[in-house]
Specification:
By secondary structure, this protein is an alpha+beta fold. It folds into 2 domains: 99 residues, Phosphorylase Kinase, domain 1 (2-Layer Sandwich); 222 residues, Aminoglycoside phosphotransferase (APH), C-terminal lobe (Aminoglycoside 3'-phosphotransferase, Chain: A, domain 2, Alpha-Beta Complex). Helix content is 43%, strand content 12%. It is built from 10 helices and 9 strands. The protein has a 5-stranded antiparallel sheet with strand order 1-2-3-5-4, covered by helices on one side. Strands 6-9 form a two-stranded antiparallel sheet. Helix 7 runs antiparallel to helix 8. The longest helix is centred in the C-terminal third of the chain and has 27 residues. It starts with 5 loop residues before the first helix and ends with a helix. The structure holds 2-acetamido-2-deoxy-1-O-phosphono-alpha-D-glucopyranose and magnesium ion. 2-acetamido-2-deoxy-1-O-phosphono-alpha-D-glucopyranose binds next to loops. The site of 2-acetamido-2-deoxy-1-O-phosphono-alpha-D-glucopyranose has 11 residues, from loops.
């Protein structure tokens, strides 16, 4: 891959002691451009930030600065690769009109589909442990990098608006999906009722399986990554996104509709992971809310994919025109299995 000019600025801004020896695109994220860069002594992850999705990078810096200060990372059983400050002490660097962020690279394997119930259990324990590590921080000190990110009520309204304004013809498969999601009003009511009863916590908010790095041999979680959406939320969000991505028999990008089911063993392993960390730590109501998390997070993701399709694919990276429609269809099948 050809070396872009920003690399030299990165080298200077982070005062690397040697030349950058290796530079390549890395990972499967839907949002940022991620590179793996290595000096002679250390590998790093460099990300060019998607400012259209994350309009407020300063809010992310605010949240990460709190975490750098408040979370005792040495006592965590995994690495939390928060960004490295540049020579000006900033967690983001503005270079040639774009925002960049550097963080330590953690070796290991990133999986898109879990291979065992034990792996599912480890994932749940790690994400629950992260919530526990931030429980002493008042949730109100966090800012919202994406306003209303997991507000199901708001996402439903945005979806309804997209249906009203879309340039696409709502027929066939699209109509079936629009009708299905439009009928989920009871989930929205249930969400609002949980919201009024649950405490807000520092949550990760993007607990899909590929936001973990496992040790090469799969025996433990080496790191929890993708920390941009950490903000105040509910424990059920983090449990729910795990259910969506781990307890489903097919991945989020699968079009094998007939094979989309809930793997009960993996679901139970996720629950066990959250219970093992959360008993006596989370409130009984928080533990009771977990099953609803799976439903609401699957619904919210389906709504978001479909909204993006209706708006002409302006948010998620896609590999083909119908991909957001297919993702929404995939989530519909999973939601039907969860309801
Ligand atoms: C996005 O960046 P990535 O792929 O980890 C999205 C999540 C969705 C996910 C669906 C900021 O996450 O909310 O769950 O795609 N992140 C943002 O795969 O919108
Ligand atoms: Mg990611």
């Amino acid at each position: 891959m050809q070396r872009p000019p920003f690399l030299e600025t990165v080298r200077r801004l982070y005062s690397f002691d040697t030349e950058i020896q290796d530079f390549r695109l890395f990972g499967d994220g839907h949002i940022h451009q991620t590179f793996l860069i290595s000096t002679a002594t250390q590998p790093y992850i460099l990300q060019r930030f998607n400012i259209e999705v994350f309009e407020y990078p300063e809010r992310i810096s605010h949240n990460h600065a709190i975490m750098l200060c408040e979370i005792d990372r040495d006592t965590l059983p995994f690495i939390l690769p928060l960004p490295v400050a540049n020579t000006r002490g900033e967690l983001f660097s503005f270079i040639d009109g774009a925002w960049f962020r550097l963080s330590p690279f953690v070796p290991g394997t990133c999986v898109n589909e879990v291979k065992s119930t034990h792996q599912a259990y480890l994932a749940a324990r790690a994400f629950a442990r992260l919530i526990e590590a931030g429980m002493h921080i008042p949730a109100s000190t966090f800012q919202e990098p994406i306003p209303g990110f997991h507000d199901l009520d708001l996402r439903y309204q945005q979806f309804s608006q997209a249906v009203a304004e879309t340039q696409r013809s709502v027929s066939g498969d699209l109509k079936e999906l629009v009708d299905f999601y439009a009928e989920q009003g009871t989930l929205i009511d249930e969400y609002v009722s949980w919201k009024n009863r649950l405490p807000r916590r520092m949550t990760h908010n993007d607990t899909k399986i590929n936001n973990l790095i496992y040790a090469e041999d799969g025996s433990e979680v080496a790191a929890v990554i993708d920390l941009d959406t950490i903000m105040a939320g509910y424990v059920m969000y983090d449990f729910g996104d795990l259910v969506r991505t781990v307890a489903c028999t097919e991945s989020e990008s699968s079009v094998n509709w007939a094979h989309i089911r809930v793997d009960q063993d993996r679901y139970d392993a996720l629950m066990q992971g959250f219970q093992d960390v959360g008993q006596g730590v989370f409130t009984p109501e928080e533990l009771e809310s977990l099953p609803f998390g799976g439903k609401m997070m699957t619904c919210i993701m389906g709504l978001r994919f479909l909204t993006d399709y209706l708006k002409g694919n302006v948010y998620y990276h896609i590999r083909y025109e119908q991909q957001n429609l297919h993702r929404a269809k995939n989530q519909m099948h999973l939601l039907m299995a969860l309801l």
